[in-house]
Design a protein that fits this description.
alpha/beta, globular, 12% strand
């Protein structure tokens, strides 16, 4: 664990004492986002501290004339820091970036893939967010506003999960684990779940439209984007861990167990105070 530099500790103490989040705005953020309703008082206090430091150390860069109000900044900070509550390194887990780029809506990105024959394929894709290697995080404001409702979707947590993943040097779905955790168990658990999801999505039943009780038995309830790669599986799993923990525990209990060990918290076991 990186030891906090004395200067960094002093600077953060000044942030906490001199730039507190306004009580009204903080209470709004907690009540507005369903994912915070289960937090016990001590976790809410820890989250507020982390979010305050996050706001003091990160810079928001809205593009194309977009203006961000204080509520939006606090909303982003609180959701970004939710995964940090039980992590030993705390806010230092986000040490490789300082800027959050915010766009109004999803933005177009030109992607290039090389197939097995060496042919380069170029296509346009829409991104709701992006975590740049050793660089900033980009977020779509529309998707930020669609996050935190307890439905399994959270662009802020998703992109911050990529930053956690990259702490060991690459985006591969295997973050630097806390002491006592088994890398072999992590890779075996996540690898098996990832392949299971890909297999279930490839079956004819999973490709049929589903509505309510017409959902086919055995077809996955996890967002299909998780099948894009091991890194995306980890990021999507983190979304469900904090947004819909019971669903993730039901679909992939071993994955839930590994995330419980990693984050040091059990969102499904917390009682709601809402």
């Amino acid at each position: 664990m990186p030891m906090p530099h004395p200067f960094r500790k002093a600077r953060r103490a000044r942030i906490l004492s001199g730039s507190p989040i306004a009580e009204e705005v903080w209470n709004w953020a907690l009540s507005e986002h369903r994912i915070f309703h289960r937090l016990p008082p001590e976790d809410k206090a820890r989250l507020r501290e982390l979010a305050t430091i996050f706001l003091g150390e990160k810079r928001f860069d809205p593009v194309a004339g977009l203006v961000l109000d204080e509520e939006t900044k606090v909303s982003i900070a609180a959701q970004a820091c939710l995964p940090l509550i039980g992590l030993e390194d705390g806010i230092d887990c986000y040490r490789d970036f300082t800027t959050i780029i915010v766009t109004e809506r999803e933005y177009d990105v030109t992607k290039r893939d090389v197939d097995s024959a060496g042919v380069v394929h170029e296509y346009e894709d829409e991104f709701a967010g992006e975590a740049f290697e050793l660089g900033p995080v980009a977020l779509s404001l529309a998707d930020v506003e669609a996050s935190g409702w307890g439905d399994g979707y959270n662009v802020v947590i998703h992109e911050m999960a990529h930053k956690l993943d990259a702490l060991n040097g690459e985006y591969d779905g295997s973050p630097a684990l806390r002491q006592g955790m088994s890398p072999a168990a992590w890779q075996s658990t996540f690898g098996a779940a990832y392949e299971d999801l890909r297999s279930r999505l490839a079956s004819p039943a999973s490709r049929k439209p589903r509505k309510g009780k017409l959902r086919k038995s055995g077809s996955p309830r996890i967002d299909a984007y998780a099948a894009e790669g091991p890194d995306e599986f980890f990021a999507v799993a983190c979304e469900y861990f904090f947004e819909r923990p019971e669903l993730l525990r039901s679909e992939y209990p071993d994955v839930y167990g590994q995330l419980l060990l990693y984050f040091g918290r059990d969102p499904a076991g917390a009682k709601s105070d809402a």
